[in-house]
Amino acid sequence: MSGKRKTRTELLSEVINRNVVTVSPTAALTEAAYLMMNEDIGALVVVDGGARPVGIITDRDLVVSAMAEGVNPDETTVEEIMTKDLVTVDEETDLFEMLSILSENSIRRLPVTRGIKLVGIVSVDDLIVVVATELVNLAMALSSKSKVL
User: Fold this and answer.
1) 8-145: what fold?
2) pLDDT, tens digit, 9 for 90 and up, residues 82-101
3) pTM confidence score
4) pLDDT tens digits, 36-72
5) Phi, psi (deg, nearest 5) at residue 11
6) What is the pLDDT of residue 130?
7) In the beta sheet, which residues pair with residue 4?
C-alpha cells in the first residue's frame, strides 16, 4: 500500500468514464443496437446536435420496448423509445451523492455534464468498485496500525 490518500479529484477521475458512446435521437434502433454490440455496452446517451444529453437508451429498452412490441427497428427512431426524463449530474458531484442519486432514482447509469454538455458517464458498478477499493484500503490501514495483544 502506498499510503498516499487519493484526492476527491483523483477518485472522480477514476470513476467517470469520459469515453461516452452517444447516439442521435433520429437514429434508427438498428443503429443503436449495432453501436451497443460493437462497443460491448448496455446503454447509449442520446445527445442533440450540441452534445447536450436529451435521453438514454438501454439494451433493455431495445428488447422490452421495441422487440416485445413488434416495432420495425429499421423504421423506429431512438427518440421513440428512449428514456426522456434523464437524470444527470455535474462533474463536480461527490461520489456518495452520485450513489444516492442512482439509488433514489432506481437507475444504473448517470450521464455527467459540465454545464449542459455531456462529459462522461458513471455506472453504479463503477462507483461500487471505487467504494469497495477505498474500504479495503481503510481496512488495511487500520489493521497495520492495530496491535495484537
Assistant:
1) CBS-domain (3.10.580)
2) 999 999 999 989 888 999 99
3) 0.82
4) 999 999 999 999 988 899 999 999 999 998 888 889 9
5) -65, -45
6) 79
7) none
96: left (phi over 0), alpha (psi -120 to 50) or beta: alpha
**3-class DSSP assignment, residue 2:** coil
Amino acid at 23: V
Q: Which residues contact 81 (CB under 8 A, 6 or more apart)?
A: 29, 57, 61, 62, 65, 66, 71
Amino acid identity for residue 63 in this structure: V
Torsion of the alpha carbons at 3, 4, 9 and 12, rounded to the nearest 10? -30
Query: Domains of the chain: which residue ranges?
Result: 8-145
What is the sign of the dihedral through the CA atoms of 34, 64, 53 and 15? Answer: negative
